[in-house]
Amino acid sequence: MKKRAGAVTLGGNPMTLLEEEIKVGDVAPDFTVLDKDLNPVRLSDAKGKKVLISVVPSIDTPVCASQTRRFNEELATLEEVEVYTVSVDLPFALGRYCAVEGIDKVKTLSDHKELDFGRKYGFVIDELRILARGIVAVDEEGVVTHVEYVPEVTEHPDYERALEAVR
Q: How far is the C-alpha of 104 from the C-alpha of 83, rounded, in Å?
């Protein structure tokens, strides 16, 4: 298992990310996560569509909640784009969050069980078993067109660059 020490910080403290980072031009690895009803969701389920994967440490934090709301609002202007918010939160917590916050377009998905997404895309913070903040965009052919690993986990990603990648 590859470890990338100091790849990101959390509150200024260096953290270690597991596995290799994904890069623009890579074929996006298929992964399996769970929806709020414990049903498996795979990247391959969106075959032929653009996919924007919004990666957050926990939906119960202000920046993560803001990131999820932002992409939920932006979906109104994005045609033929699936938006996944992936975290290690339990599926039940994601369902509760969506119900309370009115999140009805973004698919909130849990990687808590196997860390399948986090490991294949290099987002797992080893010290905390949560995902680092970031964005991955995948085109209709399954190729990665945009990647951002936010250097300081408590900061926002570059929303405009991510959205431009799927427009």
A: 11
- Could you give the domains of the chain? 3-166 (3.40.30.10)
pLDDT in the model for residue 78: 83
- d(Cα 110, Cα 34) in Å, to the nearest integer? 5
Mean pLDDT of the chain: 94
Q: Which residues have CB under 8 Å from 124's CB, separation 6+?
A: 17, 18, 19, 115, 118, 130, 131, 132
Does residue 64 have an active-site annotation? yes
Q: What is the C-alpha separation between 97 and 48, in angstroms, rounded?
A: 29
Tell me the per-residue pLDDT of 51-105, one tens digit each, with 9 for 90 and over.
Answer: 999 999 999 899 999 999 999 888 878 878 999 999 999 999 999 988 898 888 8
Given 17, 34, 52, 64, which residue is catalytic? 64
